[in-house]
Amino acid sequence: QAKAHGRNTLRFFDPQMQAAATARSVLEGDLRQGLLRQELLLYYQPVVNDQQRITGVEALVRWAHPQRGMVSPGEFIPLAEQTGLILPLGQWVLEQACAQLVQWADRPETRHLTLSVNVSARQFRHPDFVQLVLDTLSRTGANARCLQLELTESLLLTDVEDMIAKMTELRMEGLRFSLDDFGTGYSSLSYLKRLPLDQLKIDQGFVRDVLVDPNDAAIVRTILALAGSLDLAVVAEGVETEGQLDFLRQSGCRAFQGYLFGRPAPIDRLEQAQGLSLATGSAHGTISG
Ligand code: C2E
Ligand code: MG
Ligand code: MG
Ligand code: MG
Q1: By the number of CB atoms within 10 A of the CB, which of 35, 78, 180, 288 ranks highest?
Q2: What ligand 1 atom has the least distance to the C-alpha of 77?
Q3: DSSP label at 72?
Q4: Is 181 touching ligand 1 by the criterion CB < 6 Å?
Q5: CA-to-CA distance for 71 and 196, rounded, in angstroms?
């Protein structure tokens, strides 16, 4: 149909496509500005153990857009990846996370916590990634042993040798690695065996219907068995109900994350909800300035 209009026909004359493209480039400009204007912030969600005690948190980025309000990462992370803005954005997240670890290191009730940071494929593939992480750790003074990086299976589509080399280097410095959204991507079992991982996160898509869909139940059990034999820890994501928790427990899962234990929230709200700020009282109320 486009051909009938001859060689000079621009595809962008499709009004719907044009509208989408315009919206995207507006959002891209906004995100570029937003990074400069410090409109991004981190929310934190607890990860709990079998006794439902907090063992760590995951940092989840948010964008306080001046007109649209709070924008979720599902809307802007893909755009940031396409445009390369993920590099400064990811670096900012890492710096914030390290600064948070330094705060926690001072207090006995928080110094054991692991902080997990999501790293996108494009960020991880950057040739300087290892050095950037190590520089950030030493500049902030954060303890590498408390930092965990969450990668996704999309990384396996390219240079696996490079991935293994980078992970190995960072692990030698004390960092840990988790494979996020496990089961939704491209992992082959042979890669899984070779990757220097510490943890798998069962994708929330499998947890959601685990009580009603026998296939999801089977997948969850299989992931737990697999992780057991590869000596990997497992976190189940998206746990919302006691029923899901019971099933996961009975299947051998020992770590959980989800609305049942706490929604992602600003750090002071998380600390309050988890009772992490009680011992020191308001003396530490300086975090938010
Ligand atoms: P993810 O790393 O798999 O994070 C888990 C997502 O599940 C989060 O969505 C969290 O809010 C949501 N969630 C947690 N518990 C529950 C629950 O019980 N029920 C339901 N329905 N959802 C739950 P969020 O914060 O919107 O983040 C979405 C994704 O965006 C993340 O998925 C991660 O892939 C990406 N992301 C977030 N922050 C960053 C970041 O700083 N850098 C990069 N590269 N990606 C990020
Ligand atoms: Mg994650
Ligand atoms: Mg996930
Ligand atoms: Mg996800």
Answers
A1: 180
A2: 45
A3: P
A4: yes
A5: 34
Provide the ipTM.
Answer: 0.97
Residue 250, CA distances (Å) to 150, 217, 224 in order: 26, 11, 11
Q: How many CA atoms lie within 13 A of 193 on its CB side?
A: 4
The tokens describing 190, both together, are: 């042979």
d(CA 144, CA 200): 19
List the residue whose alpha carbon is closest to atom 34 of ligand 1.
Answer: 118
What is the position in ligand 1's atom list of the atom closest to the CA of 119? 44
Length of the chain equals: 289
The Cα 114–Cα 54 span in angstroms is 10
Give 284 or 252, the one with higher predicted confidence.
Answer: 252
Strands 54-65 and 40-49: antiparallel
The Cα 156–Cα 117 span in angstroms is: 19
